[in-house]
Design goal:
The chain is an alpha+beta fold. Helices cover 37% and strands 10% of the residues. The protein has three domains: 28-216, Deoxyribonuclease I, Chain A; 230-276 and 368-384 and 412-530, no CATH class; 288-362. A five-stranded mixed sheet has the order 2-1-3-7-4. A two-stranded antiparallel sheet has the order 5-6. The chain has a two-stranded antiparallel ribbon with strand order 8-9. Pfam families: Exo_endo_phos_2. Residues 105-206 form the Endonuclease/exonuclease/phosphatase domain. One of its GO terms (biological process) is DNA biosynthetic process.
């Protein structure tokens, strides 16, 4: 690249695909050197000091990588530029000019090159406090020239677009927060922009999106598995579409396929797609007063920025300082109040919210299912027996032994046992939507289930399962027997299964059913009942009765 980094960005529509998952083996190396983020005229208490400022560390504590991204950060070392002036912030050391080279900055560049060399794709982001015309500065200074030469060996491209300043301080504005991506990642990073969101810092927030390849998502449903968000279900339109469907007569397999395909299309029309990422619960101390103070603070900050160099600059700065002080005081007071309420609740209810809050922090990290194809195949072959061919055929159904109709109350009893929050099977249909479909087209479900019972057929569509292998605590990862299989079946098949079980139990529990001495796999009977029967018989024999 000849020591130059191109800043041309092709226009592309990039899909937002962020995740919060546990750390995994990295396939995308991300170096985020957040050195100057809090080196402003007000220093955040969130900055973590590093004994070795050139050593990359996870930053900040508690963050999770995006999918399979390894996130590294440097928490100290490069200071922010303030219009070429040297000003010492409260609690921070003296800042260097953006054009001044130092051994510390050279060490930082060497660490970046050593860490990222030979790895792809790579993303590098930092407040480098360096000027160069390639990213919109008025001139190129020694630090910018050194940065260009160092990163040129990594074959990376500049993601910054436009000339909007990323740093806005008392003494001026500059573009010193830079983002670089390797050639292989360049076209998958888009929507790079400088945001006006409030950051409590002189550095503006930088937002961009990374399009991950379909096979890189951690825990994502395999291709072909649909997923919808049950919270977005439009009950009226769903019921209207489903109630108008007509299931043509045919074999049980064909009728089931037509029924479920119609429900899938209805879900597409009445629900939005679900997301793998989990929603973060709002903090308990947030309230309307804090939200109002934050809006005032953002408004005052923008007024302060626009007033730079104008006669009312000092007034606007004081207004911003007052608004920021009110916001901090409101947050501090609300946190203190919530803490006192939490302590009082702990005195009243030992196992209530305080206990759950503490235990949620003490839980072990969520384990991820194995993804190595060889290990998955060995685990499946170990945990599941081989399927043998059917040895006994199903006798034909005679006219005098016709299967009775599926009754209205029988079907209602079966589908009402479906739990709303249970995970769906491979079809991805939420249980809420399935129960709404049964209520909207009751007769269609009765016809399909009756056809299955008449033909003695349990449809192949409902035999497919979504398999999740969960690692047992303390077991070796490479052993197939160390995993506990969880098999999720389609809920519609479970409804048919409950109808069948209900009819079987009505027979087995009747006069011509199972013997009274049969205790296994029966309701309201257990091993304890069997032991008590044996003991009672033995005591009767001993006593001679």
């Amino acid at each position: 690249m000849g020591g130059e980094i191109s800043s041309n960005r092709p226009s592309a529509q990039i899909e937002k695909n962020y995740r919060k998952d546990g750390a995994r083996k990295p396939e995308l190396l991300v170096l985020i050197f957040a050195n100057g983020l809090h080196h402003s005229r007000r220093k955040s208490a969130n900055t973590r000091k590093s004994t070795d400022p050139s050593a990359p560390r996870l930053y900040p504590k508690g963050w999770s990588p995006i999918s399979k991204l390894l996130v590294l950060a440097l928490t100290d070392g490069v200071s922010a530029h303030h219009g070429g002036s040297q000003k010492k912030a409260r609690g921070a050391r003296k800042r260097r000019r953006s054009g001044t080279l130092s051994g510390e900055f050279i060490g930082l560049l060497n660490n970046i090159v050593d860490e990222a060399r030979g790895k792809t794709p790579v993303l590098v982001a930092s407040d480098f406090n360096a000027w160069a015309t390639e990213w919109g500065s008025r001139e190129t200074k020694p630090r910018g020239r050194a940065l260009l030469n160092a990163l040129a060996t990594l074959d990376v491209l500049l993601l910054n677009t436009g000339s909007e300043p990323t740093f806005v301080g008392e003494q001026g504005e500059s573009v010193i927060d830079l983002t670089f991506a390797s050639v292989s990642l360049y076209n998958r990073v888009g929507s790079w922009r400088v945001s006006d969101v409030y950051t409590s810092s002189d550095h503006k927030a930088i937002v961009y999106e990374i399009l991950l390849e379909k096979n890189q998502g951690v825990g994502r449903a395999p291709a072909g598995n649909r997923r919808w968000s049950a919270r977005t279900l439009d009950g009226d339109s769903f019921a209207e579409i489903v109630s108008s469907m007509k299931i043509r007569s045919g074999s049980a397999e064909n009728m089931v396929d037509e029924l479920m395909s119609t429900i899938v299309r209805t879900c597409d029309a009445s629900m939005s797609g679900g997301h793998d990422r989990r929603r973060r619960e709002p903090v308990c101390w947030w309230n309307d007063d804090i939200a109002e103070c934050r809006r005032d603070c953002i408004r005052a900050q923008r007024g302060d920025q626009r007033a730079r160099g104008r006669p009312d600059e000092v007034i606007r700065r004081e207004e911003f300082a007052d608004a920021r002080r009110r916001l901090r005081n409101a947050i501090k007071a609300s946190k203190h109040l919530c803490w006192r309420q939490l302590c009082d609740e702990a005195d009243r209810d030992v196992w209530g919210k305080p206990y759950r809050t503490v235990m949620s922090r003490l839980k072990a990290p969520r384990t991820s299912p194995p993804t190595a194809p060889d290990l998955v195949r060995r685990a499946v072959s170990t945990l599941f027996p081989s399927v043998i061919p059917r040895l006994i055929g199903i006798p034909p159904v005679l006219e005098e032994h016709l299967i009775p109709e599926v009754g209205v109350e029988e079907l209602r009893w079966a589908y009402r046992r479906v739990r709303i929050g249970a995970a769906p099977g491979p079809d991805g249909i939420p249980n809420t939507a399935l129960k709404a479909a049964v209520e909207a087209c009751f007769d269609s479900f009765r016809r399909v289930f009756k056809k299955c019972l008449r033909e003695g057929c349990f449809p192949a569509r409902w035999k497919r399962q979504r398999l999740v292998l969960m690692l047992k605590p303390g077991k070796p990862v490479a052993e197939p027997s160390s995993y506990r299989p969880l098999c999720m079946l389609d809920t519609a098949g479970k409804v048919l299964e409950r109808i069948m079980v209900g009819r079987l139990e009505a027979h087995t529990e009747g006069p011509a059913g199972l013997a009274d001495s049969q205790f296994g796999f029966r309701k309201r009977r257990s091993t304890v009942d069997a032991i008590q029967t044996v003991l009672s018989t033995a005591l009767s024999a001993i006593s001679g009765k």
